[in-house]
Amino acid sequence: MGQSAQKSGTSPQGSLSRRVQSETMTIIGSDTVRILQREPATFYVQEIIYHKCLLRETVSSTHQTILQHPALPRLIPSSFVGDSVILEMLVSKYTHHIPEYRQAKMYKELGIDFATSSINRWMHDTIEQFYPLYFCQMNKVMESSVLHIDETTIPINDKPGKTRKGYIWSVVDGSRNNHGLFFLLPRRISFAKRLSIYSCTDIKGAVLTDDCKSYHQLKYFPHVAHLACWAHARRKFYEIKDNFKEECAYILRLIGALYLVEEGLKAREASADEVLTERKSRSVPLLAELRTYLLTKQKHCTPKSGLGGCHLVHFKSMGKPDPLHNRRN
User: Fold this and answer.
1) pTM above 0.85, yes or no
2) 177-199, pLDDT tens digit by residue?
3) 224 pairs with which residues across the strands?
């Protein structure tokens, strides 16, 4: 439990009872009961007085010197709300997921009438001051030789009474020296172009994604090895396994064998050299067998059939530069 202030003890009878007790009784002991209580949130107006001072030695001079202490640093210097109020709003939204309109209702119950638009503006003005940290984190992640990128949809309400579908991307450092991740929200320009604009260095190394069309632009990055995700590719075959039982069972078994190789490497915390050696000796033959099987089956199915569509997904990933031989992986 967090820290809490402790108030002095009180007796249930009050001051009158204590006076009577002192006249007729002698206290020989006491039992203390501790009960956690809460006081409602309180607000106060802080007044900061900046005195203007006249330098005495210039009083009789024609050029008098007047001095005043500079304004103390604040998150939003022009706003009447203090840092503690703004920080509470940020924590409420991004830690406890309380939207601005609901926060406005909560403040109104406490006697403070904040407009939802004002809360939103204060949050934006404060968050903009964190952009240097954001770009620092982005550049650190982009220096990695292995990036994992995935997208998800979010509702964007940028027009009154209308919501449109938007996308947000997470870019994760997939190297052993993981530096975390950052989120990217492209606005009316392509994902790859936004990534190129934001990145202070050229994107280099392996980039692992699913088959979303936005990632197809990565082929124009000369130093990028665009890799496909096995989990997404496997899902395609799993979804049609009831219609192509024999073919999908064989393919899923080979993919499962690839997974076993990776699980073993992860379990024993293999070094980079051990990973490369074992992938060459065990994974490459499995991939070659899978590719041969797919090429054979491709002759007997149309591109728009379930099995034919899965073949295309696999060939897109297997036709790219081999991640097993990437010197920086």
Assistant:
1) no
2) 788 887 877 665 566 666 655 55
3) 205
